[in-house]
Write a structure and sequence with these properties.
Strand content: under 5%
Number of strands: 0
Helix content: over 70%
Order of helices and strands: HH
Number of domains: 1
Structural class: mainly alpha
Number of helices: 2
Distance between the termini: 24 Å
């Protein structure tokens, strides 16, 4: 999962840059990061649920 983490880090940097100009864009950026994280977590959950689970 190195690529998604890198994308999240880049989004955080972008959000911090936007913070200097407009707090509203920071909120939008954080919301975008949250949505991306939720989507990624859902995809990971679906992928792991389709694999056989050994207990």
């Amino acid at each position: 999962p190195a690529i998604p983490l890198l994308a999240i880090a880049l989004n955080l940097v972008l959000a911090c840059v936007l913070l200097r100009d407009d707090p509203y864009t920071l909120v939008l950026g954080l919301g975008w990061i949250a949505i991306g994280g939720i989507v990624y977590a859902a995809l990971e959950w679906r992928r792991s649920s389709t694999e056989p689970v050994e207990t």
